[in-house]
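Researcher: I'd like a structural prediction for the single chain below. Treat it as a standalone chain; there are no partners to consider.
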Amino acid sequence: MVSLIKTKKGFTLIELMVTMAIASIVMAGIYAAYSAQVRSHATQQAVLDIQQNLRSAIYYLQRSVRMAGYGANAGFVDNFDAFIEPYKSSGASRTATSIAFTVNDDDDAQIDGIDAGNVDNVDNELIAFRLNGNTLEKYRPSMNAWITIADDIQAISFLYLKEDLTPHILGVDALADIRSVVISITAQPVEELTRTAAKKPQSLTVQIRCRNLRSS
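Model: Treating it as a single chain, here is the predicted structure.
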């Protein structure tokens, strides 16, 4: 009777090393693809965040600046010094990086829920915007405080134009000559997203025609 002897063999060291090398290459490829996907997602989120900030800030500014000069004795002002306290000490001003104007309310109907008080028998809504650090703020007279409009704003500029679209020179031309405002805003990614994906700030520029300010 012939007995069959089965020989059992395992993996050699070389075979194990080759297998591990192939597995490492495959895992490295999977990780690289996953990492690229994460960076792409973070970049897209950063872009969406920037665009949302810009759209929100521009919309709010457009809605407000279009009302500049509504009613009698209203329009752009250099500051609120002509008004009673606490408004005159608000720090509001009209410069290349901030804006201030009034909306006259002869019927005593509050616009935007704000009334700056009776000054010379004329109710004026005082409106001002400024960039404080990386925060776009609006002055709210009813609270005598600056409230946040948008975060993560890197820069903002206001270019005032006359009827012929030439720049209005601060301190030289009359305030009544202003007819439109070009607003440029630059937003930056939020800190949480820049940790995984570096993204350059984005800018948005719009020209707003002040429909209530017309040549006499």
